[in-house]
Structure formats: C-alpha cells, structure tokens
Design brief:
Structural class of chain A: alpha/beta
Largest interface: A-B, 25 and 19 residues
Number of helices of chain A: 10
Number of domains of chain A: 2
Distance between the termini of chain A: 37 Å
Largest sheet of chain B: 2 strands, antiparallel
Shape of chain A: elongated
Strand content of chain A: 5-15%
Number of strands of chain B: 2
CATH topology of the largest domain in chain A: Rossmann fold
Number of strands of chain A: 9
Helix content of chain B: 55-70%
CATH class of the largest domain in chain A: Alpha Beta
Order of helices and strands of chain A: EHEHEEEEHEEHHHEHHHH
Order of helices and strands of chain B: HEEHH
Strand content of chain B: 5-15%
Strand order of the largest sheet of chain A: 2-1-3-6-7-9
Largest sheet of chain A: 6 strands, mixed
Oligomer: heterodimer
C-alpha cells in the first residue's frame, strides 16, 4: 500500500493526522510518501510496486496536490499509472473529473469525493471515522467495493443521526452525498463528454461506458450503409411495380430485418 | 425563507466558541472569518443555504 499525505498548511495538518490514523488502524506494512516526499516523482517511481494507493490531502477537479500545493502528485497526465489499482482518497473534488479519468484509464476502484470535503474541528473524530471507514472495512472484511460503499453511506447516516450539532449534520450529509466509488460494476453516472452523457441517459451508465469511439463510429457507418441499401432496394421495387410492390412483403425485407437484429445483438450483447 | 435560514445560520455561528473551526476544503474559518466571508460572498451564502435545505429534506426523508 502506497500512502501519500502532504502536509504544508492548516488543512493538511488534519488530513495528515487522519491518514496516519488510518494506517495505524489497518496495522499493515505500507510505503509512506509523507510531507516532503509526497511528490509526483516519488509517486511515479513507487506506484508500480503497490496495489493500493491512498491519498489524503487537497485535490481539485484535475488532480491530487503534491507537497506545497503547487503541483500535482496525480493528474490526467500520469493517472494511467493507476491502472489495475485501488485508489482510496480523502480529497476535494477529484471524483468529479480526475477520478473519472483515472477510472476510465483502468483504475480498479476510485474512492473519491466529487465536491468539497468539509468538517468541523468540534466533531473531527466523527468526520475522520467516516472518511477512513471504507478502507478499514476492505481490509477487515474483504467485502466487494460496492458493498463497502453502501456500508460507508450507512456509516455517514449513523453519524448524522448520532451527532447533536446541526452544523456537523449538514457537512456529514454533504460529504456523504459527495462520496463516489467507481468500479466496473458501479461506473460514473456522468461525464464531461456530451455524447457520453447522452449515451448514459439512453443506455444506462454501465452500458454507456463500454461504448468506444470506434464502436460508435462503426455503428454510424453501418446505419448509413443500411439506409442507402434499403433505399436502393425500395427504389428497385418501385421500378418493378410502383408503391404496391414496395408495400408488399418481400424476402429482402426479411433479410434487412435479420441484419438489423444481428447488428443490435452484437452491439448490445 | 432564505433570509430566515441565513439569519439562523449566522446566529448559530456567532454562538460558537473561539476555538471552533470550520474546514471547507483548503479554507479554514473561525467564527469571525466565516461570518465575514458569508457577508461578502453571496455564492458561499447561497451554497450554505442550499446545504441547510438539503439536510432538512434528508432528515425528513424516511430511510
């Protein structure tokens, strides 16, 4: 497990502490990239040796920030290095775009937040418990990530119920709703690409994310070719016997229907 | 309605002690800073009011 936790401002004092608490609770060997060693270079050098990558600190839509906050440890240029890995983060916003990109490029699991992560110091322990819960559950019970996500949402619900302070309830609810866990069985429900968003609405997220550009292009070419062939066939029938010939049952129509069925079965199987 | 929520939020924040901190991403607010920021920043004010409403809806939704 590779654990990345920069520490350079007041907010990262908290995230650093939470990351330390997480690895302490898991109690297994890990490679730390803490404070000054939390750099892009170190990440790229070490990531190949690990199946799990943990990141606790600042993030934004583009990436996860390195020590000092001026560069990224992980962004869209190197997130292909997360292929096949479990990526567990407690950072703002990365789940809204960068995390989706990492998932698209083959990250096995992306645990992230699609909005700002917020908390109060008066209930810090409770917020930390919720943030750390998923990985602890994975380590202890070996459940699937879809189950772990559901359990983590329940953990947030319990915390919301338990905490008396109304302000903390608000931000626990906010963090709960911002939490995402992208896996093969639980793909992102949105995309920056307009066509992908349209496909998600049309076919559902699971099918839509399986569509590849070449496959869509192939489908368009097939449809255009199919239309041209059908029109040409209908024109030939019209020359033989006018509209009556077109409207009568022809063996060719059965052929066209079978071709269409075959294409649909191929694309949507 | 929003004004009433904002008034209550301000009252709540004013009632916090001096050690109270609200960590919102990379920004850390004590009660004075947060009140000041909310007064100046209508976007933040709107966002917080939205969160209050969302939480109220969530709490009233049977689980």
């Amino acid at each position: 497990m590779l654990v990345i936790a920069p520490r350079f401002d007041e907010a990262t004092e908290y995230s650093y502490k939470w990351a330390k608490k997480l690895v302490e609770e898991i109690g297994k060997p890990y490679e730390p990239l803490f404070e000054d060693s939390a750099t892009r270079e170190n990440f790229e050098e070490k990531v190949g040796k690990h199946d799990i990558v943990v990141f606790y600190d600042h993030g934004d839509e583009e990436g996860l920030l390195a020590q000092g906050g001026l560069t990224y440890v992980i962004d869209k240029k190197n997130d292909h290095m997360l292929k096949g890995k479990i990526v567990y983060t407690m950072a703002c916003l990365w789940g809204s775009d960068g995390g989706i990109d990492a998932w698209k490029k083959g990250a096995k699991v992306v645990w992230a937040y699609r909005d700002v992560f917020a908390f109060t110091n008066s209930e810090e322990e409770l917020f930390m418990e919720c943030a750390n819960y998923g990985l602890i559950l994975y380590d202890r019970e070996g459940k699937s990530w879809e189950e772990i996500y559901e359990e983590a949402v329940k953990k947030f619900d319990e915390a919301i119920e338990r905490v008396e302070d109304g302000w903390s309830k608000i931000w626990l609810r906010h963090n709960r709703d911002a939490l995402v866990c992208y896996t093969e069985n639980n793909p992102p429900e949105t995309s920056k690409c307009m066509f992908r968003r349209f496909a998600i609405k049309l076919f559902g997220a699971k099918r839509a994310w399986k569509l590849r550009r070449t496959k869509v292009l192939a489908l368009i070419i097939i449809c255009v070719g199919y239309g041209v062939a059908l029109h040409d066939y209908a024109h030939a029938l019209w020359q033989v016997g006018g509209y009556r010939e077109i409207l009568s049952l022809q063996g060719g129509y059965v052929g066209f229907a079978l071709i269409m069925l075959g294409i649909l079965a191929y694309f949507f199987s | 309605m929003s004004e009433e929520i904002y008034r209550v939020v301000k009252e709540y924040i004013k009632s916090r002690n001096n050690g109270w901190r609200f960590i919102f991403g990379g920004q850390i607010f004590d009660k004075h800073k947060l009140l000041k920021k909310m007064e100046k920043d209508p976007e933040l004010r709107k966002f917080i009011i939205e969160q209050v409403i969302k939480t109220a809806v969530d709490l009233l939704t049977p689980k």
